[in-house]
Amino acid sequence: MDNKTKELIAIGSSMATNCMPCLEFHIGKAKSHGASMKELIIASKIGIHVKAGAAEKMESYASKIIQGFSEEEVEDICNCD
Question: Domain Carboxymuconolactone decarboxylase-like spans what residues (predicted)?
Fold first, then answer.
């Protein structure tokens, strides 16, 4: 696997794990290995989709194991938005 591909994978992983320093580092490395802006965006979007899918699965899992779990109840308690 070439270095550009490795760095693009690392960009997606950085997005999925919310690691800002990692994202900056790997974007710089990917650019130095010839990654285009389009490739950087695609890698970032893939990481966002992976993170969203995992969050959706976790919400579904929580609703199965926590009786009475609902998004409305959580919003009323934590006011995170």
Answer: 2-52
| Domain at 44, CATH number | 1.20.1290.10
CA distance 76 to 48: 26
Cβ atoms of 30 and 39 within 8 Å: the answer is yes
Q: Which residues of 40-71 are buried (b: 16+ CB within 10 A; e: fewer)?
A: beebbebbeeeeeeeeeeeeeeeeeeeeeeee
Q: Give per-residue pLDDT as tens, 32-67.
A: 999 999 999 999 999 999 999 988 888 888 888 887
The tally of CA atoms less than 13 A away on the side-chain side of residue 64 is 6
Does residue 69 register a pLDDT over 90? no
Question: Are 3 and 33 within 8 A, CB to CB?
Answer: yes
Number of domains in the chain: 1
pTM: 0.75
